[in-house]
Specification:
Strand content: 15-25%
Helix content: 40-55%
Shape: globular
Number of strands: 17
Distance between the termini: 62 Å
Largest sheet: 4 strands, antiparallel
Radius of gyration: 24 Å
Number of helices: 16
Strand order of the largest sheet: 1-4-2-3
Length: 411
């Protein structure tokens, strides 16, 4: 049985499988490609930009290596500043268990940041290299005014807005498309394979017709009906898309792993935006809220809750509840929601204390009396929560919690 027959026989009446079988056999089967595949976060991006600002010359230019840095490579004197940049960047990245190599920062990270509008890249003569064009002699990188504005953001809300602008630029309208697709699905999530198989072909031609958002929604709603049998689809496509089964160059081959990595990178980057949250454990992308005629309705993030327990290393207790220090309803728009509905703005407290705070006058300032937690409203109301008895958190994260709270209050 051939690939097409094997795939479509999983459910012969489903058009989505017929499309998928047709697509995978096309030369440009991978579809949309916006970012070089790489795992990063907001802190990762800020660390790269901050170190570029630190190690550039008096005009902001940082001269870097070119080509492959192999075992026998020796750095030239004019590349020493780049070595200092890389060393200090990795010291910063190590704080959240990340790292980057010479080649990865040049060939992937700088490329992505250029597409986002955070850096400009130049050749050996400091001639500006255009986004989207391939050059063989990239040698300088420099922060843009947008990156400087991002690094000097007055508060978390401004920072989130600038990041959203940068990502929206690189996605070139795809953010709105994904927002619309998610809003139209019968089950309001998009998993990694649904993006790979269907969404990433948006706008391309199939049977002499352009694949629209409406068509994508039809395909995904149909695909979701397969339930557990989706695994059979993934297995068949994965088995077919193995590079060693194909001759010729990269265009002739099929590579399931790289295809999935591209989707993963896009999901990670969408998760940095206010509109979406990504449940990495289950590989699902959700809308944080949805526009309704009566205003904006928010959905509380399960991801933020899970991150609290992971970071604070706290065991769940049926007598305790997670409480937003700066109240959830203070969020007036989707950007504010992303900042408020974060694990750094949560505290795990006993149910009675949670009830008292719910009826208080917005106790939003966080401080500590030894290990005990103190919440007050600036107007005389204060509640002290005994460590472990009324509040459970990781004591070494006190400064992280206080700094985040101060930045929220300043806004």
């Amino acid at each position: 049985m051939g690939f097409k027959e094997d795939l479509t026989s999983i459910q012969p009446s489903f058009e989505c499988l017929k499309f998928l079988a047709w697509r995978v056999e096309r030369e440009y089967y991978r579809g949309t490609h916006k970012l070089q595949h790489y795992r990063w976060s907001l802190d990762y991006i800020k660390a790269v930009l901050a170190n570029l600002a630190k190690f550039g010359d008096e005009n902001g230019f940082l001269f870097h290596t070119t080509g492959d840095v192999r075992e026998s490579y020796r750095y030239a004197e004019n590349e020493f500043a780049f070595c200092e940049f890389l060393k200090n960047l990795n010291l910063d990245l190590a704080k959240f268990n990340a790292s980057v190599t010479d080649m990865a920062v040049r060939k992937i990270v700088f490329v992505n940041l250029q597409r986002m509008g955070f850096v400009e890249r130049f050749d050996k003569n400091k001639t500006l290299c255009e986004v989207g064009k391939v050059y063989r002699n990239y040698r300088f990188v420099k922060l843009t005014p947008l990156a400087e504005k991002f690094l000097n953001a007055k508060n978390l809300f401004e920072e989130q807005k600038i990041l959203g602008i940068a990502l929206d630029r690189v996605f070139d309208g795809l953010v709105q498309d994904i927002f619309d697709i998610l809003s139209g699905l019968n089950e309001s999530y998009l998993d990694i394979y649904e993006f790979m198989f269907f969404v990433s072909y948006l706008g391309k031609s199939y049977e002499n017709e352009t694949i629209t958002k409406e068509k994508i929604v039809e395909f995904i709603n149909e695909f979701k009906q397969l339930k557990a049998r989706q695994k059979a689809v993934v297995r068949v496509v994965n088995d077919f898309c193995q590079p060693d089964k194909f001759g010729g160059n990269k265009t002739d081959k099929r590579d399931f792993h790289n295809w999935k990595n591209e989707a993963q990178t896009l999901f990670d980057s969408l998760n940095l935006m206010a509109y979406f949250e990504y449940d990495e454990k289950n590989g699902r992308l959700f809308l944080r809220g949805k526009n309704e005629l009566k205003g904006f309705k928010f959905k509380r993030s399960n991801v933020a809750k899970n991150e609290y327990f992971q970071n604070h290393e706290v065991v769940k207790d049926i007598l305790f509840e997670l409480h937003h220090i700066v109240p959830f309803y203070f969020a007036k728009d989707i950007e504010a929601l992303k900042i408020i509905d974060a694990w750094q703005n949560l505290i795990y407290i006993d149910a009675n204390s949670h009830k008292a705070l719910t009826h208080s006058k917005n106790a939003i300032r966080l401080s500590f009396d030894g290990l005990d937690v103190v919440l007050d409203d600036f107007l005389g109301f204060a509640l002290k929560l005994k460590f472990n008895q009324n509040a459970k958190y990781k004591t070494s994260l006190q400064n992280v919690m206080k700094r985040y709270n101060q930045r929220l209050i300043n806004e």
